[in-house]
Design a protein that fits this description.
The protein is α/β, with parallel strands linked by helices and about 450 residues long. It has three domains: about 5-160, Rossmann fold (3-Layer(aba) Sandwich), CATH 3.40.50; about 175-350, P-loop containing nucleotide triphosphate hydrolases (Rossmann fold, 3-Layer(aba) Sandwich); about 355-445, GMP Synthetase, Chain A, domain 3. The protein is about 30% helix and about 25% strand. Helix 11 (about 355-370) packs across helix 12.
């Protein structure tokens, strides 16, 4: 396991900007409005051959003016408890705050090494701003600019010196699961139930989750990366800039995940937006599991899981292969089946089919249902091969690839499903013109042609 470093501080001191600067990505949403970050956000870092996990947290405040203040404080406390080192970010532009004093008093009680960072120091001429913070009784301060990178190398050099050596990476074999859906369908509650702890903020207020939040979970010697995402609303109802960024992050999570849990509100029924969200996942080639949450609120005499599935696939015909599971994040009903189902989807999602086997399946399929004619000539499929996994993707070389009707393509995909047992993941099938060339990575070699005598 890699050591963990927690970034904490009051709102708007630049924690997320520092997180993005150190991780060299833009995973954390940054905005001038306080309270953008609410949950813990994780990112992986390698500095000077030292690997560690950086944690961004929400702004720490002691009052209860913000409805989420108490929840954020709990998240900050959890982040510090699991960390090997803590970074307290102070605002070098606006000076001290009463919240800084409260945080420092609390950090004096923790056993981990604490680094006090004065942010928004853009150059040597602004170093005198540090004097104000020495009044807090701090012996060593690190001055830096998260925005421009000033002072960051020296700080990271000191940080990695106190961190233990990372153990072997666990990234191999991880299953990345994104939890997506409309606002308020219970995505965060579902992840909390899966983890067995209050890892994410849960509220009836739509938009509580603003960022895509990663959590690692180990179960039966397998590691899962659970990604909670912001609720995806219709474009016409998205006005705030923050919400637009949140939705972009949610859609990006679909591109990076192996399995998407499309969470539905079983009590409200299937909506048009639910199908659109499912369509986003299908377009990005994710494995998909429909999770009908709040099943404890459904009247069993009027709606059964089978009938719910029928209604779902009447509107989402493009995902009829996706399994459906009815659960309750509140009571825990059937929650434990989710991991086993995700394992099954992932195993097929990452499966490779032998070239000989796939060609036999396509040959038998074309003999059973002969391809149509095109301009007086019969369509021919010469050779099929699997070019990639996640999802299983096949290419068939044909004489007229552009003439293959989508209905015949769908027929071949169904035959591949039946012949390979790939009944759970999406399957992509493309048609290409036979060129007489063999590709070896970036290189192409022409096949030798037989010489004809004149």
């Amino acid at each position: 396991m890699k050591p963990i470093v927690a970034i904490i501080g009051r709102p708007n001191v630049g924690k997320s900007t520092l997180f993005n600067r150190i991780t060299r990505r833009k995973d954390a949403i940054v905005d001038n409005m306080p309270g953008v970050t609410r949950d813990r956000h994780y990112g992986e870092v390698i500095w000077d051959d030292h690997a560690f996990i950086l944690v961004d947290t929400g702004g720490f405040i002691t009052g209860d003016d913000d409805a989420f203040a108490a929840h954020i404080r709990v998240q900050v406390q959890h982040a510090v408890a699991e960390a090997e080192a803590v970074v307290l970010v102070l605002d070098g532009k606006h000076g001290q705050s009463p919240y800084d004093h409260d945080l420092i008093q609390w950090l004096r009680t923790v056993s981990q090494p604490v680094f006090y960072v004065v942010n928004k120091i853009d150059g040597p001429e602004q170093e005198p701003r540090l004097y104000d913070f020495y009044a807090l009784g701090l012996e060593k301060l690190h001055s830096l600019s998260a925005e421009h990178g000033y002072g960051l190398p020296d700080f990271l050099d000191d940080l990695v010196k106190v961190l233990p050596v990372a153990e072997a990476s666990e990234d191999e074999g991880q299953i990345r699961i994104a939890v997506v859906g409309r606002p308020n369908v219970g995505k965060s509650s579902l992840i909390n139930r899966l983890l067995g702890q209050e890892r994410l903020l849960v509220s009836d207020v739509p938009g509580t989750t603003r960022d895509a939040v990663d959590t690692l979970c180990r179960r039966n010697e397998r590691v899962y990366r659970l990604i909670d995402t912001a609720g995806i609303r219709r474009k016409a109802k998205v006005d705030l800039k923050l919400e637009k960024f949140s939705i972009i992050k949610a859609l990006k999570s679909l591109e990076l995940c192996d399995v998407a849990l499309i969470v539905l509100d079983a009590q409200q029924g299937i909506t048009e937006q639910d199908i659109k969200v499912a369509g986003y996942a299908h377009e990005r080639g994710c494995g998909v599991i429909f999770v009908a949450n709040k099943w404890d609120l459904v009247d069993a005499s009027t709606l059964t899981p089978h009938r719910f599935g029928q209604r779902l696939f009447e509107t989402a015909r493009f995902l009829q292969f996706a399994p459906v599971l009815t659960v309750s994040a509140l009571t825990g009903q059937r929650i434990n089946k989710l991991f086993a189902l995700a394992d099954q989807v992932f195993e097929q999602y990452a499966m490779r089919v032998g070239t000989g086997a796939i060609n036999r399946i396509v040959k038998q399929a074309t003999e059973r249902n002969e391809p149509p004619m095109h301009k007086g000539r019969r369509l021919k499929f010469y050779y099929t091969t699997q070019v990639t996994q996640r999802p299983p993707t096949f290419v068939t070389f044909a004489n007229f690839p552009g003439a293959v009707h989508f209905s015949y393509q769908r027929y071949l995909i169904n035959q591949i499903r039946a012949g390979t047992g790939l009944n759970l993941p999406p399957i992509r099938l493309y048609f290409r013109q036979r060129t007489g060339k063999i590709e070896f990575g970036k290189w192409k070699k022409n096949r030798p042609r037989k010489k004809t005598r004149k």
